[in-house]
Amino acid sequence: MTEALALPDRSARRAALLDAADRVVAREGLAASMASVAAEAGVSKPILYRHFGDKGGLTAALAERHTARLWEVLRAALGTSGTPRDRVEATVGAYLAAIEAQPQLYRFLTAREDEPEQVRGFTHGLAALLTRGIALELGVAPGPREQVWARGIVGMVQATGDWWLGTDPRGADGLAREELARHLTDLLFGAYGAATR
Amino acid sequence: MTEALALPDRSARRAALLDAADRVVAREGLAASMASVAAEAGVSKPILYRHFGDKGGLTAALAERHTARLWEVLRAALGTSGTPRDRVEATVGAYLAAIEAQPQLYRFLTAREDEPEQVRGFTHGLAALLTRGIALELGVAPGPREQVWARGIVGMVQATGDWWLGTDPRGADGLAREELARHLTDLLFGAYGAATR
DNA sequence: GGTCAGTGTTACCGGCGGTAACACCGACGA
DNA sequence: TCGTCGGTGTTACCGCCGGTAACACTGACC
Fold it and tell me: Residues A84-97: pLDDT tens digits?
């Protein structure tokens, strides 16, 4: 009974809280605290905790909200016509474009998610998606090899992306996004091995 | 009360403090705090801070102490006779063996090193080492491509290693170290691209 | 009109990284 | 013999964090 009234209200509030979290994360990045999110939303902390449980819950909710859009972009990139290499390069480039557009958000989402087997997690979801994608492209069932490859590729792109965001675009090591994507794709397609042969 | 310590000079004290830090990190991992390190060493916090400046300084000192040994191991692995692929697999395996032997330590050292351009850093050092190694193996001067590849490989191995340490060795996704190293080496040598062709 | 669930608040907790302020002690010049 | 002075140690604190207990208000329902 009361739920019929509470539910729409709750979901609207939740959206408003997430809006506030978005703004704070965009402004403060990794340093975004629960207190600042609450202040930004014009409410007090316990409201935040009643909605999301703890900070991990807020992070997960934030991730869900943004990954939907990222999934679409990545899926589109994976659907690129051309060689498998083209598809990988497009996908890597799309991911890099996403983190370049909202660097603070992605730094926040990929920040060391503390040990307690947080099944939900941005990186975890990304790896799971990629595991399926790889298995599909290879035409096999997902196994340990696909899992390892997916984790590895995600780690590789995240690590280089993180480093890249910290470099001066105009500095000596300034690198265009396309060039970074090309180097990474080369690596994934055995350019290192080929060069040493 | 505090008796003792036949006038240890600064470097001896420093070594004792690092010994204590080693023990605490091995025991508490990421949760290791400055207070516990001080307690373990039987001194008070300000002593720690006078020696290392801040927590980043302690971490850097800990890293220097252990990376020397790791560098040797990796260099030995890179000197393996055989194909380039053999060398890469041996190197990846050596790194995985190191983090398997002291998981808590490596989790601590690779934990998100906060933004403030901490030039010293375990991951940074590793990437720099690998950049030179790759350039050497390719017979070229280190450039953007080598930097990207090094960062990428380090990120890839760290990410998978981290994930692997968290899996149950006896579980369904239990994976032997050698198998993980082999999958990663396959990936680096273009097995994914080859399989999709 | 009294009860009661839900929504909101304030004010607190323990723990963190980091530091100010003070106590002690041996060396040394008068 | 005394006084000062620098180095080494301590205690006790700061501000901030994530998280919560305890209480105030409000409005629907018997």
Answer: 899 999 999 999 99
